[in-house]
């Protein structure tokens, strides 16, 4: 090799080496909201956002404007099986599974909780999101929430609600079949770690791993957790905590069974939906699950 060729080869190697060291690193876009989040409510229809948000202190929340939500990727589907509507409708909105990333939730905060104006809660774990693809509804038949048709209960369903293009139950435990989580009157969404949300209601006691208790847990987690709470998790619409429900279950099992199946027989003014399909084995599983919680708090 001649001297000139040798020098050229060395120079080329140095240039490649320098370019590798000087090249800017290719990094992913850091997590954060894709639309503005405000510290205070600016409009009546702002949606409150809470839970584990990047750059937001624990316990604080933010607000997002309806118009900004419309700027997010939308889906448009025809809905015919949602019992909140009196007939088929077309809804437009944002897939719930996309919202944690779009609104700046921390990477492990993928469970979405929809909180209604009456403190009812609907919980959407990752498995539910992937199976059913729930939608945060922004428009119904092309109309904004102020002009939505009244729901099947003859009341306004805004400011937000959640629906599905098509719901098909994927789970059955004893006589409990998985139910669609379709709350209306939604005013807030929380993004949290799934394990942290369910930790307070995990089965406890010496029989925690028994099949019956695990079955009761699966039912209570989907059904009772919407209106009853423990250690800061769960809905508060019923104003009766997990331990109160547990004490009722073990002190008066017949009353508990009647209230679960047909609550209006005991309290005609109740807003609780009954589960008349629950057989004795299903009620027994719920009682077995709740029993250790009666004196846990």
UniProtKB/TrEMBL annotation:
This is Cytochrome C oxidase, cbb3-type, subunit III. It comes from Bryocella elongata. Keywords: Heme, Iron, Metal-binding, Signal. The keyword Iron applies. GO terms for molecular function: electron transfer activity; heme binding; metal ion binding. Gene3D superfamilies: Cytochrome c-like domain (1.10.760.10). It comes from the Bacteria. Residues 1-22 form the signal peptide. Residues 211-294 form the Cytochrome c domain.
């Amino acid at each position: 090799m001649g001297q000139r060729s040798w020098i050229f080869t060395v120079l080329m190697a140095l240039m490649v080496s320098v370019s590798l060291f000087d090249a800017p690193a290719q990094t992913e876009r850091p997590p954060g909201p894709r639309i503005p989040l405000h510290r205070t409510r600016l409009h009546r229809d702002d949606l409150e956002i809470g839970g584990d948000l990047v750059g937001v202190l624990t316990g604080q929340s933010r607000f997002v404007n309806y118009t900004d939500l419309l700027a997010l990727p939308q889906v448009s589907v025809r809905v015919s099986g949602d019992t909140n509507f009196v007939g088929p409708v077309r809804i437009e909105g944002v897939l719930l599974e996309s919202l944690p990333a779009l609104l700046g939730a921390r990477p492990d905060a993928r469970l979405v909780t929809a909180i209604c104006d009456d403190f009812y809660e609907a919980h959407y774990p990752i498995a539910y999101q992937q199976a059913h693809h729930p939608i945060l509804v922004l428009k119904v038949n092309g109309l904004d929430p102020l002009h939505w048709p009244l729901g099947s209960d003859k009341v306004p369903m805004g400011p937000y609600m959640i629906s599905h293009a098509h719901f098909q139950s994927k789970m059955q435990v004893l006589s409990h079949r998985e139910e669609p989580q379709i709350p209306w009157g939604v005013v807030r969404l929380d993004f949290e770690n799934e394990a942290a949300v369910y930790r307070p209601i995990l089965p406890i006691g010496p029989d925690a791993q028994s099949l019956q208790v695990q079955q009761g847990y699966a039912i209570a987690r989907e059904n009772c957790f919407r209106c009853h709470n423990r250690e800061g998790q769960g809905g508060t619409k019923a104003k009766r905590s997990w331990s109160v429900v547990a004490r009722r279950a073990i002190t008066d099992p017949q009353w508990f069974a009647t209230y679960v199946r047909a609550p209006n027989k005991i309290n005609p003014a109740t807003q609780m939906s009954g589960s008349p399909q629950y057989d004795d084995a299903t009620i027994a599983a719920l009682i077995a699950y709740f029993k250790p919680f009666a004196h846990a708090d």
